[in-house]
Write a structure and sequence with these properties.
This protein is of the alpha+beta class. Helices cover about 15% and strands about 30% of the residues. It has a domain of about 150 residues: Oxidoreductase, molybdopterin-binding domain (Sulfite Oxidase, Chain A, domain 2, Alpha-Beta Complex). Strand 7 and strand 8 form a beta hairpin. It binds ligand MTE and molybdenum atom (MO).
Length: about 220
């Protein structure tokens, strides 16, 4: 069953509905990945574009920062925890419709890591890679520097579980949840935005909640 799901994802999200039907109760009707309802997680669905993901923790987790920076480097979990932590409590919104209200995330502001690395002139974007070996995401430099974009170490007042992309995931609060890359392992500063995994299938690169992917919600006061 996992093999069938992975094949469906590889072929594209629009085929996923058929795959979901074949998987029956195992997967939800969701075009953005292999899904399943996470137990006890407040309505979150599990997403991974790969059939399995290695576990990384205290001894073997590394987050590399490279590309157009003065000081490329890598962080261990302890290094990330030693930096000032930011807490955000917002609604999580998946582009397919499900939503989890008031979810706390905590971590290091991405802008802090960019400042520490020393972004070079000419840098316009940031690319994110994951230790699942497949997923990627990207932000413009302006988006990446927002105060509501975190390299998150905690979610729902606990360490981020493996299912939710732990030990470290990206959290892009103002955008649909596909921007929040799980199992984050690399941050590369680049000269232009490179569309991420789902964006190659037509999802918007600028994924503002309510103002992208064909939605145009009335502005709230
Ligand atoms: N590495 C990786 N990150 C990912 C995904 C994925 O498949 N792989 N799916 C994205 C999508 S579409 C969503 S909705 C969220 C789901 O996060 P969750 O599994 O913690 O609910 O992760 C995003 N980040
Ligand atoms: Mo999603």
């Amino acid at each position: 069953m996992i093999g069938l799901g992975a094949a469906g994802v590889a072929a594209g999200p629009y085929l996923q509905r058929g795959v979901d039907a074949a998987l029956g109760s195992v997967a939800g009707k969701d075009p953005t990945g292999l899904t399943g309802l996470l137990p006890g997680a407040g309505g979150f669905r599990y997403y991974s574009v790969t059939a399995s993901v290695p576990h990384r923790g205290e001894t073997d987790y590394r987050l590399t920062v490279d590309g157009l920076v003065e000081h490329p480097g890598s962080y261990r979990l302890a290094d990330l925890r030693a930096l000032p932590q930011e807490r955000l409590v917002r609604d999580v919104q998946c582009v397919t419709g499900w939503r989890v209200p008031g979810t706390p995330f905590e971590g290091v502001r991405l802008s802090r890591l960019l400042d520490a690395a020393g972004v070079r002139p000419g840098a316009r974007a940031v690319r994110f890679t994951c230790f699942d070996g497949a997923y990627s995401e990207s932000l413009t430099m302006e988006q990446a520097r927002r105060s509501d974009v975190l390299v998150a170490l905690r979610m729902q007042d606990a360490g981020i579980s493996h299912a939710h992309g732990g030990p470290v995931r990206l959290y892009v609060a103002p955008m649909y949840f596909y921007k929040s890359a799980k199992w984050l392992s690399g941050i590369t500063v680049t000269d232009k935005v490179e569309p991420g995994y789902w964006e190659r299938y037509g999802y918007d690169v600028d994924a503002w909640v309510g103002r992208s992917n064909g939605r145009d919600d009335a502005p709230t006061a």
